[in-house]
Amino acid sequence: MAQPAERQAVREPVLSVNNIEVVYDEVILVLRGVSLEVAQGEIVTLLGANGAGKTTLLKAVSGLLKTEDGEITRGSVGFLGETISNRPPEEIVRKGIFQVMEGRRVVEDMTVLENLRLGAFTRKDKQVRADIDMVFDYFPRLRERAQGLAGYLSGGEQQMLAIGRALMARPKMLLLDEPSMGRSPLLVKEVFGIIETINREQGLTMLLVEQNANWALRLASYGYIMENGKIVLDGTKEELINNEDVKASYLGGSEERRSFKNLKSYKRRKRWL
Amino acid sequence: MSLTADSMRCGEFRTTYKADTTIFPTPRSRNFAIAGLIVLLFAPHVLDTYYTNLLIQIGYYGIAALGLNILVGFSGQISLGHSAFFGFGAFASAWISNNFGVPVILAIPLAGLMTTAVGMIVGIPAARIKGLYLAIATLAAQFILEDFFNRADWFSGGSAGSVAQPLNLFGFVFATDKSYFYVVLFFMVVMYLAGSNLLRSRDGRAFVAVRDHYLSAEIMGINLTKYRILAFGVSSFYAGIGGALFGHYLGFVSAEGFTILLSIQFLAMIIIGGLGSVMGTLLGTVFIVLLPEVMEALMTTLGSQLPGLERGVSYLKEMAIGLAIVLFLIFEPDGLAHRWKQIKAYWKLYPFSY
């Protein structure tokens, strides 16, 4: 596994978030100088407690901030060499970034098939049907329910549908927001297994936001840890898994939870300098 | 005795993508629609003028109501100004055909397009506001347009109103109820097919997505502003066509007919019929148009036994409409379309209900 310095040198990042600051409603400072990079074909995970700013970071990338009165006030987001900060979401989707939002965000009144077709909204080519079959191959459960209303699917199936719908847009990069939220361990295993397969077979780049650090670190090759709107720690999968504090805070098995705030030993290097 | 495959059917099983995206979900529903159409073709020859008149009313109100249902039921917005668009279509068609020598058959779609433009202008605030605020904004549009009809002498003839010529096609004048029925039927079929078609297309899915989850719609690349305004445009087009048919039917258009009361009636049609259902729109329109007639017949029959009731007939009619809406909201919030579905399901599954 590549070391951080090496990693930067070897691979050109697909997505690079450079020292961004996000403010909601012009008063609430949520992200303070956050930087991260995701390279081609890689799964990078972003871990952190509730309210750390993970979802805000995803929204900053996908452009959804605007609908919630948020704004990137400093720094920039680059995707494939272009600056995409503060662009409208539909433009960012067309560039190839697709966000799978947390929770059940499928259109309940539509059938599974219609939901999938909706995912292909930005496309006008003839491959849509072939792609529907591809999604059904990844998620055989959805094929059985193809004509059923999406609202009648179970929570896990809705999550699968949300991911399948994202694939329909043929994105270059997927932003996954807590696919494990509120799912049973077995379903989490199934969903994460499929995510891994998709990454392996299609080489699809993914940024995975998770609470479930165990699973996230199993898939990802690199990870960032956020607290209070800042990235406090980053490293390769092995580095993070073997880190005592990560073990204590996220993986369990250690005595008590310690906050990264109290740890003076971590001096994150400032990447933007 | 052997059971055929058909009698064993207990659901709709679609095996191809093509079957899943047809306008009519089953061959039976398509055959019923065609049969209904054939029956309607003979209707004016069998029925007298009074009933033909009712059918024509159902026709033009039904077209306008479908427009409102696309806006309210499918794209999740609200409009309290639908009757103003309906009126605008009526005046615009009369204006175009009177002043520019355009034949009426072309003036009707042109009026629809003019109304679309007006509707999209009204829809611009819709991109920014939702719910109650949007209701008030469309209420403003209703009053502005009503005032415009009363004052713009060049366009609507002001408070005097304007004359709408009868439809004339290759020398044949559609002046009688019997002949005009076919004009309305033609537009009705075209508009309803176009409506059903729109809703199974990419844009139709975008409308539903904007209604149900505007955030995830946006994340899928749907431009919210564009689709909200587009919904207003489509809805106004339907209102304009309905209004134009109304104008050329009556032969005279005046501003008094297009008040907020009619807007509320349009809303009643789609709520009673079923929000987000094409079939429901038609059922709701039939219900709202026939309800006063049925009430009237009922009151006259009762009135002969109970003296003094005749005087209250008009009040009772209005009250009955109000009561019907309230009862529907309580007992059948999904509208007549839902009831219709249940009846269909009952026959399909009979005698085993689950």
Can you describe what's shown?
The complex is a heterodimer of chains A (273) and B (354). Chain A has 273 residues and is α/β, with parallel strands linked by helices. Chain A has a domain at 1-91 and 199-273: 3-Layer(aba) Sandwich (Rossmann fold). Chain A is built from 11 helices and 10 strands. In chain A, the strands form 2 sheets. A 6-stranded mixed beta sheet of chain A has the order 6-7-8-3-9-10, with helices on both faces. In chain A, helix 4 packs parallel to helix 7 and helix 5 packs antiparallel against helix 7. Chain B has 354 residues and is mainly α. In chain B, a hairpin with a 2-residue loop joins strand 2 (167-169) and strand 3 (172-174). Chain B has a two-stranded antiparallel sheet. Chain B has a two-stranded antiparallel ribbon with strand order 2-3. In chain B, helix 4 (49-74) crosses helix 14, helix 9 (177-199) runs antiparallel to helix 12 and helix 10 (202-212) packs across helix 12 (224-250). Chain B has 16 helices and 4 strands. At the A-B interface, helix 3 and helix 4 of A face helix 10 and helix 11 of B.
